[in-house]
Amino acid sequence: MISLGDRSLYLCTPLRDDLDAFLRSCLDGGVDIVQLREKDASAQARREGAELCRSICHEFNVPFIVNDDPELALAVGADGVHVGQDDQSVATCRGLLGPDVIVGLSTHAEDELLDGTTQAVTYLSAGPVEATPTKPGRRGTGIEYIEFALSHAEVPVFVTGGVTPESVATLGAHGVRHFVVVRSLTHATDPRRQAEKLRLAIDLL
Phi and psi at residue 170, in whole multiples of 5°? Predict the structure, then answer.
């Protein structure tokens, strides 16, 4: 099974008109794992976007993951899939994609985390630490849950929710070493520079 222990800056992006340039800028700046998370576009648009992301990520030797669609991941040759608590199961993803691909699982509470540790996951995500518009209606878990996740998981735990260059040091003081970034990069006027700031903050931990 693939290990992501040496990967620490995880971009989660939707489709966007400038996806090619945006993704290259983020990768140039230090992003080292990418997920395409798109809930609203057509199947064709999602396929085209996934193929573009896979191609660019592979140029940079960076893993590319599809959100919530193991069939699409298989079709485009992605490196793996990420699923939530209400999506297809980890076992289903493994059955379709095989033992060597990346399979990630979102967790938001202690029971979900403990259940995730019993499954064939490559990594777990934990959070959001604080409430975020990318997860409407979901309350922040707080840092206590993150500490619980880090102390119980044997695979990398990628922390979500409000990750910025400024918050990395605070999270890092609690043991976090793997970070999922959405708005800090997708809303940045200079994605490459923002990725560089995130990369520097992580590397200083």
Answer: -65, -45
Mean pLDDT of the chain: 95
Contact 106, 85 (CB under 8 A): yes
Residue 73's identity, in one-letter code, is A
pTM of the predicted structure, to 2 decimals: 0.95
Q: Of 169, 117, 118, 174, whose CA–CA distance to 141 is shortest? A: 174
| Tokens describing residue 32 | 């080292």
CA trace torsion 138, 141, 142, 146 (10° rounding):
-140
- d(CA 48, CA 60) in angstroms, rounded, equals 19
Token pair, residue 100, equals 């060597």
SS3 33: strand
Ordered domains of the chain (ranges, CATH): 9-193 (3.20.20.70)
Nearest Cα residue to 83 out of 64, 105, 50: 105
